[in-house]
Amino acid sequence: MSDLAYDISYLIESEPAAAPAPALRVARAVPAAPVPLGVAAAQAALARELLQVAETHEEWIRQYLHTQSSAHGSP
Prior knowledge:
The chain is an all-alpha fold.
């Protein structure tokens, strides 16, 4: 390619482009509705139950992986 293909002097000599910026305005957001106490209590109870069974679930996974590795001849 010729050097003219890489000539950007016209960009340096031109006026910089300026895009018009919209005026910023403050938007008023509606505050989030409070969570009903019944829903929050149910979510907390579910979280406690999940934490209680997490260790049992992990043990089942370990047992399953052990049986799968034993079935394939791995010690």
